[in-house]
Amino acid sequence: MDKSQIKAFIAARVAKELKDGDVVNLGIGLPTLVPNYLPEGVHVTLQSENGIIGTGSVTDENKDPIHVVDAGGSPSAVGHGGSFIDSSVSFGLIRGGHVDATVLGGLEVDEEGSLSNWIIPGKKMPGMGGAMDLLVGAKNVIVAMEHTAKGNPKILKKCKLPYTAVKCITKIITEMCVLEVTDKGLYMTEINPEFTVEQVQAATEAELIISPDLKPMV
Amino acid sequence: MPKFVSIEEAVKLIPDGATVMFGGFMGCGNAHKFIDALSKSGVKDLTMICNDASMPGGPMGEDYYGVAKLVHNHQIKKLIATHVGLNPEVAQQSMQECTLEVILIPQGSLAEMIRADGAGLGGVLTPTGVGTIVEDNPYCLGKQTINGKDYLLMAPIHADFAVIAGYKIDKAGNVWYKGDTSNFNIVMATAADTVIAEAEQVVEIGDIAPEDVRTSGVFVDYVVEGGLY
User: Fold this and answer.
1) CATH architecture entry for B3-105+157-225
2) Which residues contact A187 (CB under 8 A, 6 or more apart)?
3) What gap in Å lies between CA B23 and CA B181, rounded to an integer?
4) Is the pTM of this model over 0.90?
């Protein structure tokens, strides 16, 4: 698989995690592809943390980049039945447990379910934006990312970069496998049939617990 | 009742070294005409509290968009924000030139810390940032455990000035926001000694229905009319 196929494969698998009626916040990059793969009959309400509940498609008619943007600052739109809120209400929604799922990428994750994705000390300090609030507030935290970075494991025993949040991840979905975060560690429930369990473990620093009921990732 | 003044008069209110909150998110909801005039005023050494530093390259082809103009002109000595990654001049000034101090705060915490100040509260207890380097932030006053769950105590944030932007503002200072421009404007309007509000259109009292007012005129000290953007 090339890069774009990997992203599409991960996004398609993440889409199966979302249930009809869910309120969902998507991070920038790969997570924004997820709505393209929602199963038939599954409709979700997408939240943009800068102030939209129920985003819609941008068209020539509704485009207003001065007054309606998404959390990345790009032109956005409110969908049918959606609404605009201010930042305080928006983060009340997030921290208060009213967001069913958030999907975001990671630089590193670890076997305790902690995530690092907001700063590389001395090199890059873009800021955490809304990520820390989303990780502690959303009911389900799904990390969607490539399994390795330039061949190096991203799924570690312990994150080396500063945490975005600790013990917050529900599930990790990569092009190789699906991992559930449990008290005992990372539990592999699905594997991409293109890889063996040994290959997945070799690409992972954390020790994986293999489900006796391991299913193919499709 | 707020005073209705020209943008030039309002800019003169802000001295060197002032702490100024700017509503807006990546330029959306920035007080564009006021900020443009401020960027040409020569005012310096500002502490800016804003969600972000906006970005070079605005949606209408602007070279610098919104508060990015103030960063570009080196008028900011300290920036309190949640995300600065889309304005590379922030990293340049803070990490290479070492002329800009940056304090990063989680977005939901920043909104609530500003709201707390405006609502007369002594701080915010939030689970956001527990176990992260936010615990070392100068605005983090400690950790508390309530019903078995850990929270950080974050300080309220106040400013000398808040500069907010509405689409329509009536002659009583009541603000109506278009689209998702309300973002940080609503909390910031409550948490500064002096609040300057830029309208795209100033309208008569009654043109905004009372139920559509999101920021009451009682919070607003000065109104400037910037014209449609």
Assistant:
1) 3-Layer(aba) Sandwich (3.40)
2) A179, A180, A181, A208, A209, A211
3) 8
4) yes
B182–A51 CB contact, under 8 Å: yes
Measure the CA–CA gap between B152 and B131, rounded to whole angstroms: 10
Distance between CA atoms of residues B114 and B19, nearest Å: 13
Residues A27-40 pLDDT 10s: 989 999 999 999 99
- Three-state SS at A28: coil
Q: Which two tokens stand for residue B46?
A: 């500002």
Radius of gyration of chain A (CA): 17
Instruction: Tell me which of B64, B117, B128 to substitute to probe the interface with A (most A C-beta atoms closer than 10 Å).
Output: B128
Beta-sheet strands, E only, within chain A: 23-26, 45-48, 52-55, 78-84, 101-104, 108-110, 115-116, 140-144, 148-149, 152-153, 155-156, 171-173, 177-182, 185-191, 208-216
Tokens read off for B9? 């008069």
- A186-193: long-range contacts, CB 8 A cutoff, minimum separation 24: A186/A111, A186/A155, A187/A211, A188/A214, A189/A213, A189/A214, A189/A215, A190/A13, A190/A214, A190/A215, A190/A216, A190/A217, A191/A215, A191/A216, A191/A217, A192/A9, A192/A216, A192/A217, A193/A217
Q: Do A95 and B180 touch (CB under 8 A)?
A: no
Nearest chain B residue to A86 by CA: give it: B183
In chain B, list all ranges with CATH 3.40.1080.10: 3-105+157-225
State the Cα–Cα distance between residues A169 and B188, nearest whole angstrom: 33
Size of interface A-B (CB pairs under 8 A): 162
pLDDT tens-digit readout, A168-206: 999 999 999 999 999 999 999 999 999 999 999 999 999
Task: Work out the burial of residue B57: count CB atoms within 10 Å of its CB; fewer than 13 is exposed, 13-18 middle, 19 or more buried.
Answer: middle
Asked if A107 and A143 count as a contact pair (C-beta separation under 8 A), the reply is no
| Residues from chain A contacting residue B21 (CB–CB below 8 Å) | none
Q: Classify B106 in phi/psi space as left (phi over 0), alpha (psi -120 to 50) or beta.
A: beta
β-strands A140-144, A171-173 pairing: parallel
pLDDT at B83 over 90: yes
Strand partners, B226: none
How many whole angstroms from its chain centre is CA B147?
34
Q: What domains sit in chain A, N to C, each tagged with a CATH number?
A: 3-35+99-216 (3.40.1080.10)
CB hemisphere CA count around A90 (13 angstroms): 33
Residues of chain A with pLDDT under 50: none
CB atoms within 10 A of CB B49: 28
